[in-house]
Structure to design on (290 residues):
């Protein structure tokens, strides 16, 4: 491994995903989708926690007033600090589950979905506003993945992994009609999965099946490649003191001979300068109308 690459948490997560830095608690939150688990890791003291979820969980993000908003199989829910659970948006579709999600600078949650069999167009991307209202922002997505925003909030990025593209769109425009290719990953290099945007506007992306993390400049030019010991990195996020370390989730599902570190949480030390995240600003389930 690169001397800057280390193991933060040794694990055998089936499908590690969705790393997110929680600045209030000073911890990294990540999930094992197929294990129905939300993990946390505190770098300062090495403390770890694991919480079981109601269903397969695609992402977990901190809320502005505590607790976690989660993208589950049947929709979006919330766990309060006392462990109580309630639905914010319940939309069960047979054969479909929640996948990657991210919180926009305005506090809205953007949550993607996909079919278990990855049938073309079987997923979507939904925006859940801070007032609890929801709308489908992008229909007919196959594998909705990496979501992020430029440092000034003017651009939004989104990945539908089988297209091999990272798309970009003005943040105030409709993604379905205004998105355009930001960059494309060449065949044989893996599929773009989760992403993170740094303070310089560069886009870092995990390549599922490619064993790499790549960084692209704001113009879409490839300018850094980090080779990993595992084949299936899934996503990345800046965290730690000063947001200088890049945390990387990985998977072992579908591999007949997974690397011993497949499913672990990795960290690339001093990778760059991350952007502060925004907590979800939505309501508690009890505040919504029945």
């Amino acid at each position: 491994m690169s001397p800057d690459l280390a193991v933060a948490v040794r694990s055998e997560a089936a499908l590690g995903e969705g790393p997110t830095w929680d600045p209030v608690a000073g911890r990294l939150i990540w999930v094992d989708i197929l294990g129905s688990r939300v993990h946390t890791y505190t770098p300062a003291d090495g403390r770890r926690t694991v919480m079981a979820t109601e269903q397969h969980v695609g992402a977990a993000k901190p809320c502005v007033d505590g607790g976690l908003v989660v993208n589950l199989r049947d929709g979006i829910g919330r766990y309060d600090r006392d462990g109580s659970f309630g639905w914010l948006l319940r939309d069960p579709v047979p054969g479909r589950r929640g996948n990657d999600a991210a919180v926009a600078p305005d506090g809205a949650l953007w949550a993607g979905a996909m079919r278990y069999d990855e049938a073309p167009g079987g997923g979507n991307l939904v925006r859940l506003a801070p007032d609890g209202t929801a709308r489908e922002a992008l229909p007919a997505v196959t594998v909705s993945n990496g979501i992020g925003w430029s440092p000034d909030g003017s651009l939004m990025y989104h990945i539908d992994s089988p297209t091999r593209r990272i798309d970009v769109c003005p943040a105030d425009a409709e993604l379905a009609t205004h998105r355009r290719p930001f960059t494309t990953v060449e065949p044989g290099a893996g599929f773009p999965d989760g992403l993170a945007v740094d303070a310089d506007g560069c886009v870092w992306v995990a390549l599922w099946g490619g064993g790499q993390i790549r960084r692209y400049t704001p113009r879409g030019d490839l300018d850094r490649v980090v080779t990993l010991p595992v084949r299936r990195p899934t996503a990345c996020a800046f965290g730690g003191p000063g947001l200088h370390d890049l945390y990387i989730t990985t998977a072992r599902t579908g591999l007949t001979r997974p690397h011993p570190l497949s499913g672990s949480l990795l960290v690339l030390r001093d990778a760059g300068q991350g952007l502060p995240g925004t907590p979800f600003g939505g309501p508690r389930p009890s505040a919504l109308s029945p």
Notes: The radius of gyration is 17 Å. The first helix runs from residue 175 to 178. The chain has a mean pLDDT of 96.
